[in-house]
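Usage example:
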Amino acid sequence: MAERLGMVIDMKACIACASCAVACKVENNLPDEVWWNRVLTDGGENPDTPAGVYPDLTMSNLVVACQHCENPACVKVCPVGATYKDSETGVVRQDYDKCIGCRMCMSACPYTGVRSFNWEEPRHVVGHALGDADVPAHQKHVVEKCTMCWHRLAKGLQPACVEVCPARVRYFGDLNDPDSEVSQLIRERECKQLLPSEGTNPSVYYLV
Amino acid sequence: MSETKGSCVGLTRRGFLKTTGAVAGVGAVAGAGGPALQALAAAYEPGQKEGDGEQVFRGVCRPNCFGFCHLNVHVRDGKVVKTSRAPYNEDCYTRICQRGLSHVYRIYDPERLQHPLRRAEGTERGAGEWERVSWDEALSEIAEKIQSIQAHYGEGAVAFLTASGNQSAGITSAYSRLIALLNASSVSACLDMGSYYGMQAVAGLYISPLMGLQMWEGNEPTDAKNAKSIVVWGANITDAQVQNWHLIKEAMQGGTKLVVVDPVFTQVASKADKWVSIRPGSDTLLKYAIMNVVLEKGAQDVDYLRQHTVAPFLVREDTGMFVRRSDMGIEPVPTGDVDAATGREIVDDPYMVLSGGALVPVSEASEPEIEGSYDLGGVPCRTAYELLKEEILKHTPEEVSKITEVSVEDIYELADMCMDTPVYHYEGYGPQAYNNGAHATMAGLTLCALLGNLGKPGASYGAFWGVHMGVNSVYTAPNGPSKGFSIPSVDLKNVVETGQFAGQKADIKMLWMYSANPLNTHTDTHAWTDVIIPAMDYVVVADSVMTDSARYADMVLPIAQWFELEEVANAGQCSSLHHNEKAIEPLYESKPDTQIVSELAQKLGLGEYFTLNNEEILEEMYNTDMGKALGITMDDLREKKQIRFIPGDAETDPHIAYKDGAFGTASGRFEFYREAPTVRALTTKAPTPEEIERERMPHWFPPLEAWPENELYKKYPLVLMSERPRFRVHSQWFSVPVLRELDPEPYVKINPVDAEARGISDGDYVECYNDRGSAVAKAVFSNAIRPGVLVYPKGWQMTQHKAGGWSELSSTEFDAFAVNNNFMDVLCEVRVWNEGGGR
Amino acid sequence: MSDTNKASVAKFGGRGLNIAIVVAAAVTVAGLALWGVQLSGGLVQTGMRNLDSWGLYITMFMFLVGLSAGGLIISSVPRAFGMKGFGGISKIAVWTSVCCTVLAVGFVVVDLGQPLRLWELFAYSNLGSPLMWDIAVISIYLILSIVYLWATLRAETGKVSGKALRVISVIALITAVLVHSVTAWIFGLQQAHEFWHTALLAPWFVSSALVCGTALVLVVVIALRKVGYLRLDQAHVVKLAKMLGAFVTVDLYFFGCDLLTSGFPGGSGAEVVSMLVSGPLAPFFWVEVVGCVLCAVVCFVPKLRTNPLVVVASLLAIIGIFCKRVQLLVGGFQLPNLDYPGLVNRYTVTDWASGMAGAYQGMVYWPTPLEFGVALGVIGLGALLLLLGLKFLPLRPVDQVRR
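Running the assembly step on the lines above writes:
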């Protein structure tokens, strides 16, 4: 049986430190102002603010990147197959060289903002390529997104965001393997998926 | 993540995060171990470098967030390409955070200083106009200035100021050596010293057998899991000390409760089982109220008080001193031992306690009375415990509730949790950032002593931070310690204004700042820009970026960044020595501090003392007999990368503070009552008799400024609090591009109620001001902020503000005993900023 | 045919047309230059961003696909069903269809980030993508339109049998319906946007296409009659106007159905309704509704069916449908699925400076001048095609030409 690589993120303990976002940025040599992995606040109108009136307050965080859906909306609509699901791992991938820049996938993806288009020639404030040597160069006018750190998987490593999380709230593994840590967590703890009504069956689960 | 909340418009349509059945089938059958991933990994050999020609060096992140995390510094083609998490010897400390991950942007920051800069001739200090000079020119000029100023005004006229920018052995020893040889003065930072002073006042100092000085003593954070509850007192853990959060989280997962006491609904408060909102600056009172409940319920640990505190000691009403045997007319008996510190012979004059109505030496009383009084030849004496009790009984939950604005129910609930020991009290630096702050620490420790909640697994009070005292004190002071002044930074303004210090003439005329940015991260920027700096004939700053302080210098020296030299980081929460390898050559013309000092020394005629290069200095520091005996030579460090300087093991045997009731105080006991309060540091200010009396025990007294009864409150009704933010440590990382994308400009958090009362809209630029200064920042509406309070994230440089700067608003007023920066003892008002004047 | 008519017909195609052709060509060239600017400097120069990743171009694409319908349907329906036609305007109608289709394709092309990779559409076709379906159907539609036009011309000279023409017209009609349905499915099959995700979208696109297609034909033929390119019995105009009225009514009916279905449960759909009725898209909503109602009134009240009013009604219908397209496109992005505040920068959303909440205060998207310029250029190309067709192709009603 093919793998379904996925992530479990414990939102009860996520502190919105943005380490995942920064690790993703450096590891993948992301252009300036491009973020594949973002921290959102479920609270007030501004980031990092609670809902409610002092002192009756609640606040929680939500870290969002590509959900690597089992039934990805983006893959269906891409006219040239530039975004596709890897059959071995279930990772939703993006071929920069193929992408025609129609942004059909961005529109089709229910997870607002996880796909990022390079609206201009990618700029890098640091003059040399950062992160892993094996990440493909970024191109103007193509769509990109979280790759589940494909280049790291190939080396037997976890995605960068999982490794660095100082709160240790990210877990990675094969959702199709009932003995994997991620499968156990999903079985044992209350968990949610983002927008389940969209029918995409994300491979990212949130413990709540 | 419930679906009920949400000021977010239209949250309802989201159907967000609907629970999938927790037992949803995740695939019944599976091949073990992930074949596809294994196939992918097959081509990759473990240990292989990640890319062609990629090298990995060990780096230590050392900004004094307390973490000192170990990093892999990845280098390709001679350039750092990333930093990643490196394995720490104790896995619980293997970690990295958003700041540690951004180093590559910090190293190659376009703002990085590239060559020595001299203030352009004819321009004012701070004008920001510079001319590039060569190292030779720069160091020659500095040497000439040092010599002429010392010749003119005395050796102590040249002062060096440092803080926590780079806590490492190489830099520290090189500068110390130079300072000692020059007999120059030192300006010491007064950062978070209220907490330090309060702790050592009542509990003394602990120095480990491995020469670790635990300046902020407490149980190692890995011990928190052993507590029934963790009480966080004003600590912004999830932002300022991200590295510790997982330990709290893991404790919670094991059933430990988390309580957060903070005026602000912080991220960590949002995670807590209970959040107690408190009026800023009133923590001491709350602790007293809890002690009041403890007594009410009879929950005090009498045995602990009797054995390990000064509770049974008798206090003379006339002198405030403890009764000793000599008070009964028995002469002290010489022991023949000499106190190494004072050089005086130690005499035996035991403390006397009440036992069965009679006075006996403490060692002879198995169960001394902790309550009672005694008439010592007409001098009334009472036990120290009675004095404490009297103080505790003054503060009923009802009275305290009115002032702290913590409800009586909350006080009782909190007290119940505190009484259900062991409790791990995690103290932050919020409560001590007021003029009365040291007493919050003293009271907290006293509460723990009252409950016997010290010295055991899970039972602790404090922050946790140690520094290694080194193994070669000769290197740092080859001809003995410097004869210059040692001036606390909060007092520098007074010294400059009066020209006096410690009863001597003190003409400080030159200031050299390294690993520090006092104009920004210390209080009262105007004290620096308007008084201290103008009084200087010459100002030197060594730094890697143009800080506020550097901007006011006459000469700015570009230093090598952390991974551009070998170092031994020697402080932090892991209480270890950490080896940092040199990963790349210093960029541009920058040089390691050690090299700068050595090259300057040649020009000062001190070349003979500075013949060692950076690596050799480190070897000189650690390759001593003591180093060999302790197992911490440079070879050991280079091999092991990290060596604890306190006993134990973070995971299996975490450090327990005050184990077995041992305290580094004069009496060896916990001194909630002190017979001879001493100031933390000598200043121009002498404590008043009232202050001395006050200082004998933890006492509640209002903050100096930030208090409603202050007359100034009518004019400035907002308490200006700060937070140690997620994206900087003090002012470090202020210009790092990747973090500025996440956090682009200064802002101030304000409760919408306070904002709307002033006509301020969310996102407006507002001016926060008082009589001392102002800062302009973007208003961010946040209900996390207590009405009547503003909160700003620290560390923005003045050049990053539209106008002003945060430290303009704070003052250099300080408590004579704690000698601390009163960061949050500040009142202000806020209004919409009107660019270009027109107030 | 009278002399005056002959004179006016003869007059057409003179200097005025040539000037118009030159102007259209100039606009086209300017548009191409602006497109070059867009490609070299990047799409960052447009108003489109990650959270509103389509804009004016795709709006125009939707709109023009709709416009293209009318001509073909009007000319093919009578033929397909063996009814009496509209007085020989079918060739012009088809030519406008062809021009609009080319325009629609043009708008997709200028929207692409990597137009040089267009060939991949044929090399790596993902036949599961509605966009791919649309590309296929539009290509077929375009080819069929041209074939149909050619066949009509040939039929006029007797070289193609009426039966063959009828077969072609049936196929063309089916394709036309498909084009609108498939274009609708590009949007309607996206579950990510509640506003789009409705089964009604395809028939609704067909009805909207009929509305603006018919209206466009009306405007064009009345204008051409006015300038003397052709003659047309007023009866045909009336017939067309009645049809327009019927289509507009159906379209409004669909809209009503959609609003009711969305709004009635009072849940998330109510948000869509309020966004349209009183939210940031209200101006476009009300222009559409009022415009279409007025159009229907003119079309149905015999007294009001004067030529100027019919033109006004037609224009109102076209504007109304354009407003509909704007509502659809912007409205699709106006309600993000994840609107939690977080990092927002200049790539995130058009009006990013005041954060997530601020970005959605007004319309989430608004085009930049460059987009208007490029759009104008594409329209220039369409106009150029139309005018060239009028000048060089034998599109006039055959009876009028032959005399």
